[in-house]
Structures are given as structure tokens and as C-alpha cells.
Amino acid sequence: MKAIETKNLTKKYGTSRGITDLSLSVEAGEFYGFIGPNGAGKSTTIRTLLGYIKASSGTAKILDLDIENDIDKIHEKTGYLPSEITFYKGMKVKDIIKYSASLRNLKDTSEAKRLCDQLSLDTEKKVDELSLGNRKKVGIICAVQHHPDLLILDEPTSGLDPLMQREFFNILKEEHKRGSTIFFSSHILTEVQEHCHMAAFIKDGKILVADEVENLKKTGAKKISVAGSLNTDILKEITHLSTSDDGKTTFLYNGEIKSLLYNLSNQEITDINISEPSLEEIFMHYYDTKGGESDANL
Known about the structure:
Low-confidence stretches: 292-298
Pfam family, one: ABC_tran
Helix content: 25-40%
Largest sheet: 6 strands, mixed
Organism: Eubacterium ruminantium
Family: Belongs to the ABC transporter superfamily.
Number of helices: 10
CATH architecture of the largest domain: 3-Layer(aba) Sandwich
Distance between the termini: 15 Å
Order of helices and strands: EEEHEEHEHHHEHEHEEHEEEHEH
Protein name: ABC-2 type transport system ATP-binding protein
Radius of gyration: 22 Å
CATH superfamily of the largest domain: P-loop containing nucleotide triphosphate hydrolases
Domain ABC transporter: 4-229
CATH class of the largest domain: Alpha Beta
């Protein structure tokens, strides 16, 4: 079964872009990263999938349920953490968590208590008194306490300190082991590289590419670092050229290594290092080479 499946999903805001012909397939049981910079369409996609905004065209299913006709059932089976957390003013943390549980007829409070302890959350405080990070903790507990079949998380680690980020991903790993599908958006590439098996890149409301994280790292591009005097004008097929304070020149190269070495052999270089680029560097490589047009068959 597909946890998420969209076909040509489009959301327009008048003449403004939202998402365009977005086709995405997420298998049940995946730990899936949805990557893109701010404004790429990540939140629009998620809110459309969960029925908070209406699609302009296209279709989508969540856990084999149609987002147009079965949204109440979808909400029963999913947990959602929005990028921006807001709650009813004046309510205590414990009351918000209890209210969230009641919406899903959850009477067992043991999981909520365990999560509060794990995240060091004071449930006696009113939400008005909480920092962004602590409000985010409340949202995490509300999303997770009923052990949903699918967790959809929009920029989930914003506002969390490094220690709480680690605890948060420990919670996600626990849910994943229980059988939950994890789908989270992020602009932090290291999070996706460390935790996800699958990932999709989105830019300007369109999917650029989607694949296993390990396959995404096999673009054919190499990270080249050169020390010495280098004339880059004679080099072709390079992107992300930079020079460090110590004089090293670094770039991504997408051509034949034999040709590169031939061109470098005639220059005054003292050292060269050829390595695999990081996922972040690959992400930017896709942005530059794809130009926003998706050729991925998802």
C-alpha cells in the first residue's frame, strides 16, 4: 500500500504559484524526506494532502484514502506537526494534550506521559508561557501519542535545541519501528541524509527528482578540491566554484575525470582531492542542472 500517492497535484493562489503537477509516491513504512528551501512548496503540499487547503487540480490519496472524500478517516490515521505551532490561549499543556487525544478517542495517557518525560516538558504550564521550542514539543506529543499509521511533519526541528532534536528523532525511530510511515519536510540536508531512506527534491512547486538517498548521492558529480594556482576558465562542466582563505579551490565536476586530470596536469597545482559530494551539495547541483523542470517519473 502507498502511504502517500499524488498525481499531477496542483494548487494555485490566483496568479501565484503553489505546487504544479506534483506526482509523488511514498510506500508504507518508509522514512521519507521532502527537501526544499523556504517557499519551494513543501508546506503547500502537506496542507493540501491533509485537506487544510483545496487542490486546484490533480488527485491524491493518503493510506489509500482520497483526500477529497475521506479526509476525516485520513485525520484519524495520521499525525501532523505543522511548521508553525499555535494553540488556544490560556490552556495548560496537559489540557491541550488531553484535548488532542480526545479527538481520536484515545483514553490511555501513558504514552503522552512518557513522551513528556522524554522531552522534559512541564505540562502544568500554560501554552502562552512556552518558548517556540516547548510549543513544538507539545505539537510533537499531540502528533505522536496515538501511534498513527502516518506521521507528516513540516520542518519539525525548527525551534528545538540540538539535544531535543536528537530526542525527537529517537521518537520518530521508535514510531517507525512500530510500523509508522514517516514523511517530513526539511531544508536541512544533514537531517535527511542521516535519517531517511528515500527523499524528494522540490523547487518552485515542482518535484526535481525522487529516489533512495544513496542513489541521489550517485549523480556522477564529484567534489574536487585543488591546492595551487588554478585557471578555472579552461575547465568545463563545473558548478559551485569557491576559493577558501587558504587558497584551495573547490567545485563540483560532472564531466570525465580523465579530461579533468589532463587539464589540471598543465597547471601549477600542489594537491588534488576527489571525493563524493554531500547531499547538500548534490541538492544544489540538481537545482542548477535541472533548472526547476522535473524529469523524474515518480
